[in-house]
């Protein structure tokens, strides 16, 4: 039976820092199997104990999943000697638990970025064979049309030799904008595909990855933990 400190279990969910756990315990808001917990350093076997905050059970999951609305101007990396990274947008207690971005967005690309310390999840979301769609909103210098959509659908081979799986392009009512759906994520892929069509990308934002959609309430630069329903949707992926 492995016993772990309450503050470690709760801060490991990514929802509270250790400092916050301390305050919650002090305020009598944390219970273990229904009994109010006295001290943050009290130890529990996480799989065998129902921990709750304000009566809401907290699952002591091993992994942390964060949805970030990546703004332009930050790197999808965990560290960089000169430039800000997406980890710099998270509070200190989430910078120390081995989170990494699941699939990179370019420095100037905005939108949905998942961060987790669940290694196998990256594979489930990114491997082309897993058929997990990534949807991007795009604005180009030019006018998108049915010929572009047909080229995407057919599977493009770019002038630089990149062979792309069949993809989708839906032209939106303002025809310099569209929704691009890819199953893979090669380097600069959306930009390269559209450059190849003579319509360079001016703005790119990822809206979804498989079952996870960018929360419209999250401003650029903001983050939140995934909800239980979102985590369940990820677990249900093949
Ligand atoms: N395609 C790109 O060109 N850039 C991204 O950041 C993501 C997809």
Task: List unreliable stretches of 5+ residues.
Answer: none
Shape: elongated
Q: Over the alpha carbons, how many angstroms does the gyration radius reach?
A: 21 Å
Number of helices: 6
Distance between the termini: 31 Å
Percent helix range:
10-25%
Number of domains: 3
Largest sheet: 9 strands, mixed
Bound molecules: uracil
Q: How many β-strands, per DSSP?
A: 15
Kindly estimate the percentage of residues that lie in beta strands according to DSSP.
25-35%
Describe the structure.
The structure is a single chain. By secondary structure, the protein is an alpha+beta fold. It folds into three domains: 4-58, RNA-binding S4 domain (Structural Genomics Hypothetical 15.5 Kd Protein In mrcA-pckA Intergenic Region, Chain A, Roll); 65-127 and 212-235, Alpha-Beta Plaits; 133-209, Alpha-L RNA-binding motif (Alpha-Beta Plaits). It is built from six helices and 15 strands. Strands 7, 8, 9, 10, 11, 12, 13, 14 and 15 form a nine-stranded mixed beta sheet that branches. α1 packs across α2. It starts with a strand and ends with a helix. The mean pLDDT is 92. Uracil binds at residues 105-106, 109, 188-191, 204.
Q: Which helices and strands, and how do they pair?
A:
Elements: E1 4-5, H1 6-12, H2 18-26, E2 30-32, E3 35-36, E4 43-44, E5 51-53, E6 56-58, E7 65-70, E8 100-101, E9 110-116, H3 119-126, E10 134-140, H4 146-154, E11 168-171, E12 177-182, H5 189-196, E13 201-209, E14 212-213, E15 223-225, H6 228-235
Parallel strand pairs: 9-13
Antiparallel strand pairs: 1-4, 2-3, 2-5, 5-6, 7-9, 7-15, 8-9, 10-12, 10-13, 11-12, 13-14
């Amino acid at each position: 039976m492995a016993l772990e400190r309450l503050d470690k279990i709760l801060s490991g969910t990514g929802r509270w820092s250790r400092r916050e756990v301390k305050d919650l315990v002090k305020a009598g808001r944390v219970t273990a199997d229904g009994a109010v917990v006295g001290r943050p350093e009290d130890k529990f076997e996480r799989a065998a104990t129902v921990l709750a905050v304000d009566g809401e059970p907290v699952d002591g999951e091993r992994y942390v999943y964060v949805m970030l609305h990546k703004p332009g101007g930050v790197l999808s990396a965990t560290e960089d000697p000169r430039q800000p990274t997406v980890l710099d947008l998270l509070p200190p207690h989430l910078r120390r638990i081995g989170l990494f971005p699941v699939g990179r967005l370019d420095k100037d690309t905005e939108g949905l970025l998942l961060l987790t310390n669940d290694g196998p999840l990256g594979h489930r979301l990114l491997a082309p064979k897993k058929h997990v769609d990534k949807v991007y909103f795009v604005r180009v210098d030019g006018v998108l049309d049915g010929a572009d959509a047909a080229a995407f659908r057919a599977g493009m081979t770019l002038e630089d030799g990149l062979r792309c799986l069949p993809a989708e392009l839906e032209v939106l009512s303002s025809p310099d904008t569209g929704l691009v759906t890819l199953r893979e994520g090669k380097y600069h892929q959306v930009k390269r595909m559209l450059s190849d069509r003579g319509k360079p990308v001016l703005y790119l934002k990822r809206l979804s990855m498989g079952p996870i959609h960018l929360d419209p309430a999250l401003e650029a630069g903001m983050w939140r933990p995934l909800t239980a329903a979102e985590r369940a949707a990820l677990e249900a992926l093949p």
